[in-house]
Amino acid sequence: QWRLVESGGGSVQAGESLRLSCAVVDVSMKNNAMAWFREAPGKEREGVGCVDTTGQFTSYLDSEKDRFTIARDNRQKTVYLQMNNLKADDTGLYLCAMVQGGLCDVKRYYYWGQGTQVTVSS
């Protein structure tokens, strides 16, 4: 059973926005930072960003930190990735992960989701 379930992906035009969701199932997330990653065809998995237990967002993409943001809702047990002004290079499978700790500088993860596909057409 998947503990993390992503949704919200789809096909959009360049310049549009998407909000991805990551639902946490059967486990608590309140003491864990949550991260998003993406996998593009022919490229290695890349970190997008993370939100710690206080709600502070850290971008792992220096060049994209103004377009992407991550928020969490502990009551809904959901983490959101808001992506604005999407580009063709943002195409990929987006996955969320639960960090083994409350801070985003920890790079070990308890659980991963299966991912949700984002396709951006230019």
Compute the number of helices. 0
Query: Hey, roughly how much beta strand do the residues contain?
Result: over 45%
Total number of β-strand segments? 11
Mean pLDDT: 95
**Shape category:** globular
Q: Provide the low-confidence segments as ranges.
A: none
Radius of gyration, in angstroms, nearest whole number: 13 Å
Q: Output the helix-strand order.
A: EEEEEEEEEEE
- What structural category do the secondary elements indicate? mainly beta
Largest sheet: 7 strands, mixed
Helix content: under 10%
Distance between the termini: 36 Å
Features:
about 120 residues, mainly beta, 7-stranded mixed beta sheet, 4-stranded antiparallel beta sheet, about 0% helix, globular
Descriptive account of the structure:
The strands form 2 sheets. Strands 2, 4, 5, 6, 9, 10 and 11 form a 7-stranded mixed β-sheet that branches. A 4-stranded antiparallel β-sheet has the order 1-3-8-7, with no helix packed on it. It starts with a strand and ends with a strand. Strand 5 (46-51) and strand 6 form a beta hairpin. The chain is globular and about 40 Å long. The relative contact order is 0.32. The chain is an all-beta fold and 122 residues long. The protein is built from no helices and 11 strands. The model has no long low-confidence stretch (mean pLDDT 95). The chain is 0% helix and 49% strand.
